[in-house]
Amino acid sequence: MEEENTHPKPPVDLSDNIVSVLQDASVHDLRESVIYAQELLQHNHEPTEQIEPLPGEEIVEIKGEGKRFTVLKRQQCADNCPDCPHGPYVYEVTQEKQLNGETHFHWAFIGPYIANE
Fold first, then answer.
1. Taking the domains of the chain in order of start, what are their residue ranges?
2. What domain of life (predicted)?
3. Helices (H), the chain
4. Residue 45's pLDDT is what?
């Protein structure tokens, strides 16, 4: 009995050219393509989409562009604190590239947010 070479169904919006190239690619090339596609996604995303709160935190506002942002966030302190969440607090967040090529965000605490009245 002959085994059929069937491929998973590709996403509807993926171009036929890309589908064809991927279906004909070796396992090695597919793995490398996945890594490269993830790097492209990281490169093309707006940094503000990548700034995420930690559990128990709430991002109130993000201002800025490029690689430097001002972030207002509220955060939890200790269990059962009646005043939580606290803040908002102001942070300067910069996007930094590491020696290994990865990008991460550096958070610098500025202080409590004081609204202009």
1. 12-44, 48-112
2. Archaea
3. 16-24, 27-44, 47-50
4. 55
- Residue 41: how many CA atoms within 13 Å on its side-chain side? 8
Q: What are phi and psi of 82, to 5 degrees?
A: -70, -15
Tokens matching residue 50: 């990548």
* pLDDT tens digit at each of 117 positions of the chain: 444 568 888 888 888 999 999 999 999 998 888 878 777 766 665 666 678 888 888 889 888 877 888 999 998 887 778 877 888 999 999 888 888 888 888 899 999 998 775
Contact 59, 83 (CB under 8 A): no
Q: In sequence order, which residues have a C-beta less than 8 Å from that of residue 9 and are 6 or more positions away? A: none
Q: DSSP code of 83?
A: T
